[in-house]
């Protein structure tokens, strides 16, 4: 009898807990997404990185992940935060451009230009807010724009100050931790401009790149201490990733650099171009000159030229309305130059996403993640449904698949919180009947 009474009490408690709608925050759905721009997948392998190594023990590490074509900051970050391919979200370059007016706006000045970002695809911040969550973007590309008239709840847009100030990096973490712990934010995206800046300026093999990786590692150590200090260990999940890798740019006398004007008269044949921008270039031929442009560029060595409608499907670019009719992708390490060689970047990206140098990192830890779990490589487009699952929200239409990433979660295979409550209930009821 005593046994039966105890069971009855437990059952009543479980039923009332299940019947009470758990508030989203109470369910522990807090998520921090951090991006370190241009963190090549293997940057931690020739540097001592105790904190990154500990993360792999305490959480999930993917061998590497593949960014979308285009391997550039804005297109790739926007794929991560929308789960859409570039041809669907239409952020097709770091620069905002208009092929008709010849307008070209540099990356940092695009960050608050909604007309560049808002093309009918809702990023995670807005979808989460529409389902009752509180979200913020700290320097994350796309966070400063409005989508269908809606802004992200709290936004800090990247300014023009240096990207590598370690004290500032820590202050940014303190700010974000306060948002989670004192103001109950559910989703914060945090962006750092390194190691991309050093990778461009010095090249991926330069000792300064190793120095910045050590700084990133210390920052991750600082983050973990801050999570403990703010009592967020049991409620905050963290994903650390990046947008693309980096490769050393080949220069004379090692190679002959690409100068496109050697193969076609750009002024005569093209009305619009962005060509001096790493490994990826775009052109609008003058009326009736498309075939001529295509054939002239096909003769140039160390690059591949595509008519937009012939771009391989695996690039997920051909459907874009924004992309001009001709797209040029240089071979790894060859930067595109239109007329002159500008010896600025020693490292660059924008190359084919199948190249190992373009692959990037994925790490995750927190209460929802398995420990010491090494994930096979996957496409970054699949991070989006994983984030929706962690936030307990319904995703907007996307090109990712949760089945690719859910293996890294503790409760996977349909193991939602609600499902496990139902299973517990059933078991208890069976016990009750057995006891009766
Ligand atoms: Zn870059």
TrEMBL record:
Signal peptide: 1-19
Domain of life, source organism: Eukaryota
InterPro entries found in the cross-reference section: Alkaline_phosphatase_core_sf (IPR017850), Phosphodiest/P_Trfase (IPR002591)
Keyword presence, Cell inner membrane: no
Keywords, sorted A to Z: Signal
This protein's record includes keyword Signal: yes
PANTHER family xrefs: ECTONUCLEOTIDE PYROPHOSPHATASE/PHOSPHODIESTERASE (PTHR10151), ECTONUCLEOTIDE PYROPHOSPHATASE_PHOSPHODIESTERASE FAMILY MEMBER 7-LIKE PRECURSOR (PTHR10151:SF65)
Name this polypeptide is given: Zgc:153896
Organism: Seriola lalandi dorsalis
Classification of source organism: Eukaryota, Metazoa, Chordata, Craniata, Vertebrata
